């Protein structure tokens, strides 16, 4: 399973990349706004940290303009992936850009039928939002399972990029149901390594090792 970081925090992305946990990055207009930084500058900096796909989202609402914005964003770096909303215009733009060989990420997916349309339009990634479905008392993970079944039924190559991930448990469930990629904030990715028994066990090992009076180096 690929790990993407859902963030525009350069230091946090670089830190996770150094550990070997970054296969790509996703951003959205809210993340960019929160960073308070220049959109294209941030994308350019992220693209220098990782060779993986870095999603940069268009903000036009009409297909031709989305394509124009997408082509412009692609000039930032070869690993820019153009992120498009799941609307009819977004699908049309996805179809055009995909045929040009541009990697595309169709975002704001909340139903299996929407995911089916994105695959038909050649999307590289479909981004179903788990957390936002859970927020309204629906089952976000069921959506991932349904898309997995549909894509496997027909051999679609569009990758399921599970988004709006809020917890370590979401990541585990995604891995079990077969999402191709998860994108999560740095704090969620870091939380995957935590376990109280690991901390307790390590503390005990350190105490016992000290008693031996030995050193390794
Ligand atoms: C994914 O591409 C989105 O940027 C993100 O996962 C949305 O997450 P949120 O629902 O926590 O804002």
* Strand percentage: 15-25%
Tally of domains: 1
Count of β-strands: 8
Uncertain ranges = none
Question: What's the overall geometry?
Answer: globular
Keywords:
217 residues, alpha/beta, TIM Barrel, 8-stranded parallel barrel, 11 helices, 53% helix, globular, binds erythose-4-phosphate
What would your notes on this structure say?
The chain is of the alpha/beta class and 217 residues long. The chain has one domain: TIM Barrel. It is 53% helix and 17% strand. The protein contains 11 helices and 8 strands. An 8-stranded parallel barrel has the order 1-2-3-4-5-6-7-8, surrounded by 5 helices. Helix 4 packs across helix 5, helix 6 runs parallel beside helix 8 (140-154) and helix 8 (140-154) runs parallel beside helix 9 (168-177). The two termini are 36 Å apart. The site of erythose-4-phosphate (E4P) has 11 residues, from helix 7.
Topology diagram in text:
Blueprint: E1 2-6, H1 10-19, E2 24-26, H2 29-35, H3 39-49, E3 54-57, H4 63-74, E4 80-85, H5 88-99, E5 104-109, H6 112-120, E6 125-128, H7 130-135, H8 140-154, E7 159-162, H9 168-177, E8 181-184, H10 186-191, H11 196-212
Parallel strand pairs: 1-2, 1-8, 2-3, 3-4, 4-5, 5-6, 6-7, 7-8
Bound molecules: erythose-4-phosphate.
Erythose-4-phosphate is lined by residues 6, 26, 28, 107, 127, 129, 131-132, 163-164, 183.
